[in-house]
Amino acid sequence: MRRGGGRNGHGGPAARRAASAVSAVLAVLAVLATPVPAQAQSFRAADAAVREGIRRGVYPGAVLLVGRRDTILYRKAYGRLTLDRRAAAPHPDSTLWDLASLTKVVATMPVALRLAERGELDLDAPVGRYVPAFGGGVKGAVTVRMLLNHTSGLRPAINLQRRAATRAEALALVLADSLLFTPGEVPRYSDLNAIVLGLVLEAAGGAPLDVLARREVFEPIGMANTLFNPLPAQRRRAAPGGTDHGGPLRGVVQDPSARRLGGVAGHAGLFATGADLARYAQTWLRGGATGGARFAEATTLDSFLARDARAGTRLLGWDTPDREAAPSAFGALTSDAAYGHTGWTGTQLWIDPARDLFVVFLTNRGLAATRRHSLTLMRERRAAVADAVVTAVERCGVVASQASC
């Protein structure tokens, strides 16, 4: 009889199955014994806060990126691109997100910053200098700066898709609209401010807004995956920002007014990846320096971050924490130096220079499993994620030169 050749011998099937089972157990034990990376340990609460939003149906997918001026501390994708469990998962580097109102601070405002720095745009000039159709009467007192800090007196929004049949008709409605308040006196957030500002920039810069944004912002910073109106091939990797006639809007802007304006507008229409927004945030934390050049002078950036009591929480383009809001999109723990913005589709970017910290939190709330209290639940998730990130960074004592905590 061959040694070990029997059914119960050392080389038989039973022995091999037993050895395989032992190996599997040892492999599991090895995994369990492997220390969890410090990053995952430190950001466990932030991770749980993002997952809770998926569990409660606030959004089907998300990405979270946390970093400093010179490094990424944490990056992770969650869930699916749609409510279909068979849908692809998002990715921080490749998934395109409908940024909604983040367009205001990632495209429109930085174009204004660049043109102003070169002397091609006067922030304190009346809007009518650049867009004559806007002037006349009390509107002649509205300046470019008032469009940026939302003190122009314009109403918050007009549903241009419903009230206009063409882009030309839509712009005519915006330009002819009356003011609700005396210019410069009352801060009131308005999409119309950014739409008109886009027209100002086109006049001052001599090109369409999407061309200006690409030339003045995305290319200098290296944001290769940030654009208006994604091409059909690019739409396949987009997270739908909403629905239209029951179907997901994949790679098509959710905002109805932006759609009526052709997908390119000062207030909405931009798509970007989480990684590109991280590069943008780092440029601000570096005082305008990019990886190989300079986007703008630090003094210019500082001028856009200067506070004006008449503008409430608003800077030039950016928003700041509202300590009276409950909950604030910035959470309760960000410093008074923090600034950022949110978007209707569930997007958010905030930067805290006092901590050398930024957070990119992107979701597609427009596909919420339940629309009831969706906006309130999104505010709660933003605040929970923000506070969890700040707590993690404070607890582990991360400094700018460290890659992880």
Provide a compact summary of the structure.
The protein is α+β, with helices and mostly antiparallel strands and 405 residues long. The protein contains 15 helices and eleven strands.
| Share in helix | 25-40%
* SSE sequence, one letter per element: HHHEEEHHHHHHHEHEEEHEHHEEEH
Number of helices: 15
Q: Using the alpha-carbon principal axes, give the shape.
A: globular
Relative strand content: 5-15%
Spans of at least 5 consecutive residues with low confidence: 1-11, 13-38, 398-405
CATH superfamily label of the domain at 39-102 and 208-396:
DD-peptidase/beta-lactamase superfamily
Q: What's the β-strand tally? A: 11
The first-level CATH class of the domain at 39-102 and 208-396 is given as Alpha Beta
CATH architecture of the domain at 39-102 and 208-396: 3-Layer(aba) Sandwich
Strand numbers in spatial order across the main sheet: 2-1-11-10-9
* CATH fold-level label of the domain at 39-102 and 208-396: Beta-lactamase
Distance N to C terminus: 61 Å
Mean pLDDT: 89
Rg of Cα set: 25 Å
**SS content category:** alpha+beta
Please describe the biggest sheet, giving its number of strands, its sense, and whether it closes into a barrel. 5 strands, antiparallel
